Each structure stands twice: as C-alpha cells, then as structure tokens.
Amino acid sequence: MPDASGKPAQTGIAIRQAMPPDLAELIRLEQFFPSDRLSRRSLREYILTASARVMVAKGEGRLLGAIIVRHRRRCRSAIVESLVVDPAARGLGIARDLMRCGESIVRNWQCDSLTLTVRRDNAPALNLYESLGFEVYNTIDGYYSDGTAGLRMTKALCL
Q: I need a labelling partner for 44 at 20 to 30 A (CA). Which of 27, 61, 70, 80 fits?
C-alpha cells in the first residue's frame, strides 16, 4: 500500500496522477493487452477529463503500470476502465497498489461501488480482484474483440 509519500512500501515505486507527457508510455503499456486496447485519443481524454483519473506507477525511469477510473455525474458507482502492469514488473504488488489508489479516488468522489470487466481467461487479475473483495455478478459472452467472455465484477465501498 502506498505510504504518505505516494510510494508503495515494498517496491519503492511512486504512484502519481498521469499527465499529458505520459501519453506515449501509457500507449506502450496498452500494448500488453491481447485485444481491446485504448486509443491515444481515449487515453488523452481520460487524462484531461474531470470525471476520470489516470494514475501511474513509475519506477526505473519509466511507467510500470496504470489504472483508469471514471464516474458519471449523479451516479453512485464508478468504473475501472483499465488496469495494466508491465509484464517485467509483475509480482511487485503494483496492480494491488494501483487498485487501492483507485478505490481511494472513487471514495473521494462519494461513490458507493466500483465495477470492472475482466477477461474470463485472466486468472491473475481475477485472483487479485477477488482478494480485494470484488465479486462476479454477470458474464458477457464474446465481450472482447477476440471473442473472449468478460466477467463483470463489483465491490461495495464503505464511505
């Protein structure tokens, strides 16, 4: 979990809000998804909009991971649009730290739940989300462009 300086205790990696100059690195991270990658335009819009936050984990002089959370006006639920960690940095707790950071942002927005969609075949992500208290509430066959099913998950947040 990040300490007061924004650095996760075990990894020494700083988590901060993304800025427009991070765009090229965010696009590089998106390439680690097997399908349904966010476009440069979408990433830029998420960075600039008030209804979304893009948080990045930086270490070793580059971005190692990112999370995008967003909410709609007058909606009590928020969405994890994307969570990605560079494969070379997996196993360091970066995804967990980014998810906890995202949950904190969502609580500050006064949202009472957080939802996400994950590939049915992404066992590491499913294990992470379940360990953080997310539960599957729906399966969407063929959700991803390569035909893989998506699992919708949700977590109630205590405000």
A: 61
User: How many domains are contained in the chain?
Assistant: 1
CATH of the domain at 66: 3.40.630.30
CA dist., res. 14 & res. 59, Å (int): 7
Any bridge partners for residue 15, and if so which? 57
Please state, in angstroms and rounded to a whole number, the distance separating the CA atoms of residues 95 and 90. 8
Structural domain of residue 51, as residue ranges?
A: 14-156
61-72 pLDDT tens trace? 899 999 999 998
CB 69, CB 52: distance < 8 Å: yes
Q: Which residues contact 34 (CB under 8 A, 6 or more apart)?
A: 119, 146
pTM for the structure as a whole: 0.89
Domain presence at residue 40: yes
Residues in the chain: 159
